[in-house]
Amino acid sequence: MLKGKKILLGVTGSIAAYKAAEILSLLKKKGADVLVIMTESATKFVQPLTFSTLSEHSTVDNLFSLNDKIKITHVSLAQWADLILIAPATANIIAKIAQGIADDMLTTTVLASKARVVFAPAMNKNMIANPIYQENVKKLSALGYEFIDSEYGPLACGEIGEGRLADIRDIVDKVEYALTFKKDYLNKTVLITASCTREPLDKVRFISNYSSGKMGFALAKIAQARGARVILITGPNCLAALKGIKTVLIESAEEMKKEVFKYFSEADIIISAAAVADFRPKKVFSGKIKKEEAEKLVIELERTSDILYALGKRKKNKILVGFAAETENLVGNALKKLEEKELDLIVANDISAKGTGFGSDDNKATLINSKGVVQELTLMPKSDLAEKILDEILKIK
Ligand code: CTP
Predict the structure, then answer these.
(1) What predicted TM-score, i.e. pTM, was given to this entire model?
(2) Is ligand 1 within 6 A of the CB of residue 322?
(3) In the prediction, which pLDDT does 89 show?
(4) Domain 189-283+299-394 belongs to what topology?
(5) Which residues in the chain show pLDDT less than 50?
(6) In what residue span(s) does the Flavoprotein domain sit (predicted)?
(7) What is the pLDDT of residue 37?
(8) Ligand 1 atom at shortest distance from the alpha carbon of 278
């Protein structure tokens, strides 16, 4: 939540300017105090009154607006803001800020501010592809300015391509994360496996488990918010795709193993949150098994590879984190897995407990590190648990 956070919303001259009103409402609903600065061209698309009404502050639409509870000068606004969000951000505003131009209230405020600045660009696809724009983004990114990538789809100019303003929920999430998390995973690549695997029996049937992928996705989302580069290797799931995260979709344990080892060398940290099937049908039928063919069906199963065990053998200086799904002797079994798979940390789940584990939004876990320190956590949302796991990983020497 954003209670007590002060956000300066910069709105620039794009047709997507009307969407800024909805962004503003969502930020307000989350408890943020939001003040809007519009560029002159933005006022051609939406009336400042819209934003004044929603924000409960006078909208600033020129360098000399002075009528608000907050004393408005470029310096006072620059100091007031915890974060500056420019949404939609045109190629023009990005170019100006990249060059240090300060010729209106928004550019002047950004230049004078030490707050985090997040751009949500919206423009024509050829403008996005233009190397001049790309250079500006590169320059600003290197200086610590953040970007929420625009989306592919129909554009206001009638063309289809990259350039639509990102989904407003993603923009609000990004702001929330930016104000909540420290960037303590910068320059780290985290490889995460998630969800279940499916082991085929014939063309229509498979063996699998109840894992939804929620834990792995929560880890991926929060690691990204904390500055990590994330590679997510996931089995089938019904979750929304994660923006800006390299996501590889797999089905079987063997496919997961292949992809994990493909990206292994790039990772500093590997978190194996997937519930990988331990067994697969020995024979995969080429068509569909027909019921007329037999009164009963006996399926012979064989072991799949233990991916995490194989990773433990090759880990060297990489940090390896596993999960343990247990129905009894939680700590004892988890410790055994920690040792056998040469892990630095294991997250043990009692999957027989109500309201936790597979498919649930919450989880109750016990963390055990390689020194044998056991930390029993309370029931909490998977996103909070993801935070705790990521905190613990940073303590591993
Ligand atoms: N794991 C894996 N490959 C497998 C099975 C499990 O990489 N074929 C990983 C899981 O991602 C998890 C850890 O190993 O991080 C432990 O998984 P779990 O299912 O709890 O234990 P198993 O090792 O499969 O042993 P068992 O099912 O007998 O408890």
Answers:
(1) 0.86
(2) yes
(3) 98
(4) Rossmann fold (3.40.50)
(5) none
(6) 5-176
(7) 96
(8) 8
